[in-house]
What we know:
The protein is of the alpha/beta class. The chain has a single domain (64-327), classed as Aldolase class I (TIM Barrel), CATH 3.20.20.70. The protein is built from 12 helices and 13 strands. The two termini are 17 Å apart.
Amino acid sequence: MKISKKDALSWFEFFSELPEDEEISPRQTEIALSVFYQIEKAVSARHAELMRQIPRLKTLQDRTYYVGDDGRFPAGCRSCLLGTGLSAVRKTNRCDARCPFCYDYGALDAQPPVGEGMWEIGGTKFYEEDLPLLLSIHKKPTGISYVYLEPFMEIEKYYGAVRIFHDAGIHQHLYTNGLHCTEENLKALAEAGLDEIRFNLGASHCADRVIDAMKTTRKYFPQVGIETPMTPEFYRQFLEKKQRILDTGLDFMNCAELHLNENNIGNYAGENLYFCRQGYISPIWSRELTLRLMALADRESWPIAVHDCSNRTKFARDLHLKAVEGGWFGQSSYGCEFDRLPFWAFLPVLRDDSFRFLEEEPLPPGFRFGDIVL
């Protein structure tokens, strides 16, 4: 069904008013999915037009897109998209920032601790002295990443584990907001063997002290970059300090397409959203800002790689990970993060007169608003 925008709005207003314990019927679900498809196709057309404006757009085996220096494309992303995956290593359950785009927004103080002296890898708890046992039994991954939440809150506890994985020949990268980075702890991390640091520059609103920390990091690490969800605020703040940021000598910029969950969706109420492959829900402007930034980087020949870390990239990543794990054909962990679809969140895009569906046709009998749809 190529439902019209008018019919789509009528149905979504109805779905939004249903009681929380009332599920929609299979036919109503078919209507809802046709609406999501219409929105997504219109968004995809906009993406395609923006990509045509990037003459030197590159692809990594059709799994993602980027512009710039091939040698500066992050090794951690190559591991994620082409290697044996990217195993998440968790330890710190605290953060000193409160970012509206954070997946744990509003619940940062309720994050469960990993446990004193312990690391969480693959859903299992390990002491540092258990890591050689893990490496002797499991096939080692091409890369691991330190996540959850802000490692520099207790970075001195990371050095031993980093050294063990370095000695095993595993590429390691770490995410940070940069607020607690010092020359001393950065140097200690590099000496332990960490390969790559990614700064969530949007978490500090492109603070000068974090930009300075990036420049210090450049002295010690093989790869230094930015990874931040692309928002209008970050896009504007980055461009205001673009030259100072590029002068740090960073290698790459991962422009993450912001996707929403139960915790952070309220921060983006009123924005135009879309449902990507019935998985991630994102503001339409997020990837569009990425593509505009990539076009600028291409025109100005920035000396870095700028990576379109989009929902499509995440989709390719999850397909790849299941394939290397021996999953069945087509298996993926990519999916929706909402137990109940937030139909209310799509009312703004359906009410936006400037957003048009590519093609519309009348609903068939039995699906029209006012019919009894079972």
